[in-house]
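Tutorial sheet, problem 5. The four components below are modelled jointly, 276 residues in total.
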Amino acid sequence: MLSKKTKYALHALTYLGKHKDEKTVLIQEIAEEYGISHKFLENILLELKKAGMLGSKKGKGGGYYLIKEPKDIPLSRVIRLLDGPIAMLPCVSLNYYEPCAECVNEAVCGINRVMIQVRDETLKILENKSLEDILKEE
Amino acid sequence: MLSKKTKYALHALTYLGKHKDEKTVLIQEIAEEYGISHKFLENILLELKKAGMLGSKKGKGGGYYLIKEPKDIPLSRVIRLLDGPIAMLPCVSLNYYEPCAECVNEAVCGINRVMIQVRDETLKILENKSLEDILKEE
DNA sequence: ACAAACCCTATTTAATTTATAGGGTTTGTT
DNA sequence: AACAAACCCTATAAATTAAATAGGGTTTGT
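Model answer (structure tokens):
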């Protein structure tokens, strides 16, 4: 399951996408829209900013704004940033690979094989769907 | 990511599948094969038994054994039993549905829509792949 | 009778996630 | 220049969940 962090990030990005004609949007405004903690959301937006997905303006009249076109923000990127691996097993993760401690021999592991298929089908969607696709539905 | 419980369950089932010509297999034997705690595995096997996937024999000379054909144990069933929902969001889970607390309106949520797609593709694999498919690879 | 091996429930420990805290820095306005 | 609004940053605490352990109970073959 996606963590709250990731869910909040996706919601916040969606909100910013909907308000991209406005120069900036306040953290507080987004937090209120979804009924989530201002401070928790602040940390998340900061992380999105550091990752180059958002811009911000400090001081009075400041706030956050998208610095990319929604179509250029794939959902896989957001999930990986906040949650880490998308795969169901560390041993099939493309970005966060780790061997499974209990695995006797990864080279002939049937569980591994199935989870590679799941990973590939999942990525086929999440790498090709972007913030734009979410916005189109709302 | 799958929990260790689920991973251990899948490995144990695989091991039992490989030894299905033997009447019973000891917990201890499986635990040693994968280097996992006897007691932890015991709890897991018990859960699999209660769910009707395994049979057991008590007392001296006892142990566990499969009571179904490997092809009749879909992976989705094992995962749901030990880990719960397969979906990435509670609001798209078929077996463990719950609304997302922060969601303003599920009826027009773009995140929901994408995650339904991911769920469907994932289930297409996990409901159709069985223990038999894992065994074939090993 | 005895020991092997599963059965059952509860508790503890560890890890992770979620949330809070609190001051720092920048910037527009007066 | 003063002030307040608003983001920046790091650390810590609280809550939840996952993982592991504990310990006795019951069944069964020899």
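Marking note: The mean pLDDT of chain B is 97. Full credit if you identified this.
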